[in-house]
Amino acid sequence: MNRIFNFSGGKTSAYMVIHYYKPGDLVIFCDTGIENPKTYKFINDFEAHENIPIIRLQYEGGFEGMLSKKKGVPNQFKRFCTVELKIKTCRRYLRSLGIMKYENFVGFRYDEPLRVKRRKQMWKQVVDKFPLYDDKIDKQIINAFWNTKPYNLEIPSILGNCTLCFMKGKNAIL
Fold it and tell me: 87-127: per-residue pLDDT in tens?
């Protein structure tokens, strides 16, 4: 079965790829079109240092394209941005390659049990895998690992990669 790694452009998913990737796996970054510029630098550094290719995808028209099709703005009650810009964009790409069944590697850590618990299985043919959670890898382990590397993500952890993410709270965004 094909193995697909969801690469957010952050330290946790990068750690997951470095530790669990095997030749032949697909590593996919779905670009919202409004990522922090330092996210793109980190992805470029990752490819250069780790020699692991990243497939870069984007929803047609990016964030603005999604807004024009959805006729609304994502919010805490209608959180469709991740589903549209990342999950469904990746799924359409894989289907275009004829990949219908696969293992979907998601970088939820051991200290994020609610994210694992709340993750809904969207398709029967897709088996979600949470290797960091299963192996008890937490944020402290991730940060210690990146302190040993010659490159790092230069975004404060309070922010995240998407510059308009309402999940971070207005004070973090400001």
Answer: 888 999 999 999 999 999 999 999 999 999 988 766 778 99
CA angle 108, 60, 24 (to 5 degrees): 50
* Amino acid at residue number 101: K
Q: To the nearest 5 percent, what fractions of the chain are helix, strand and coil? A: 45, 15, 45
Residue 5's identity, in one-letter code, is: F
Return d(Cα 61, Cα 59) in angstroms, integer: 6
pTM: 0.86
Q: Looking at beta carbons, which pairs linking 36-41 to residues 24 or more positions away fall under 8 Å?
A: 36/155, 36/159, 36/160, 36/161, 36/162, 36/163, 38/153, 38/154, 38/155, 39/9, 39/10, 39/153, 39/155, 39/161, 40/9, 41/154
Alpha carbon distances (Å) from 143 to 55, 137, 152: 25, 11, 10
